[in-house]
Amino acid sequence: MQRGADPRLPPPRNSLLPEMTIPRPASWGSDLPTVPSGFTIQAIATDLMVPRQTLVLPNGDILVAEGRGASAPPLRVKDIIAGFIKGFGRSPVESGNRLTLLRDADGDGTYEVRTVFAENLNAPYGLAMIGSTLYVANQDALVRFDYVEGQTSASGPPVKVTDLPSAINHHWTKALTASADGRFLYVGIGSNSNITERGMEAEVDRAVVWQVDAQTGARRDYATGLRNPTALAIEPGTGELWAVVNERDEIGPNLVPDYLTSVREGGFYGWPYSYWGSHVDPRVQPQDPERVASAIQPAYALGAHVAALGLSFSTSAMGAQFAEGAFVGEHGSWNRRIPSGYKVTFVPFRDGRPSGEAIDIVTGFLNSQGNARGRPVGVTVDPRGALIIADDLSNTVWRLTPAQAAPRAERDSSQ
Amino acid sequence: MLLAFPLALFTAALLSDIAYARSYHVQWANFASWLIAGGVLTGIPVLLWALVGVFRRADPGWTAGIYFAVVLAMWVAGFINALVHSRDAWGAMPQGLYLSVITALLAVIAAWMGYSRPWSRLVP
Question: Number of Cβ pairs closer than 8 Å across A and B?
Fold first, then answer.
């Protein structure tokens, strides 16, 4: 598996039929995901409507964005067939298009209050909070709600901050995070194709991270060439923006690794012309050698086709071993005979950079028959000492806690 | 008559591939992929009828046999070409172009045989 700062990449491979393995949905029954010793995991909400990303509010309440974006129209026979096959691995539940709020009022780890915070949204995905304003990245627009601590439902309909690119929406998810100083929002916008097969005209304002002024809604490209930046987060030590990015398919089971990287202002990360720095992708014509030469090599490979969709930086409340680093939710592969991903991993950091091997922290999403009981999406560190994991196949929100962590109520009163 | 469909579709696919190779406009590759799929689909009855001809003919079997072999080769090349054209963007090239040349050429040969004597009775 190509993981780490310096993955060995095989040459690209063309095949007549793309490798496809779609694990079929299976039930958890009474089983739980597998976690390291010293940790416990439990479902804090079930029967959701396609939960994707979560946000922990200042009072400890959890918001869950639920929804599924519109599918891009099929262009070729291949799109119809591939879409049909991939459908076997998906939850049949319809898109929630809403935010659900979960509350654990007494701090016992059971989220006994569950309300619909906002509805009639359009495939909400990214969530962020600046001061008392909640920002939600729908598949077609960035919107905001005024938030008052303790609210269990929004006081009114959202206000639009800015439109987001949504034509075709091959990759529809819009990732979101706020800058450390609260002045800007960063929006991750995926490409409109695997590798430009819908034409370069479809890629205007695509495969980019936008910087949006929180006050005015003015936006500009912050970084480009990021094929599908599905989750964004600020590294707490340095205040730098980081992203997990899903790379291109159909040039082999070990190409191209999805990656975790810091996102440099003005940086170009290769897509579509090249991958992992300056490895040219021959499927893109005409090529652009100048841009290839300027392509930044990402910081850390997560493995090919793992489909990283969640990113959250840790805190000391997660225990000494996991105090510094990034949790990554890996939705799992389709373009590979032997599935990859289907787990939550932890990439240890030191001085604001990845250091050392990634550790699998939540596994067991695939059962022994190779069927999928769940597929992790968004991961969010609760500063009180928990990792919140959205699972869009079993429609569950999981909560991973270090067993030795004190119950929340006691911790709060001791601070 | 049936042979007219693969003949037209496979040659049109070749023209689309040439247009893509010259312009890099990916829409031409999309056109080609649908034209090839159509050629493969409409080629099935042509192939079956050619097979029937092999067993049905009273006169020397080699005429029907050669015609069937050419139609079969056209269809197999077309099918492989359909798979190659399912690759994204320039990934279908240049193999897709070569296969389109071969497929169109075989379609023209089959048509030349099928629409002239002594093979004409083999074409429905």
Answer: 57
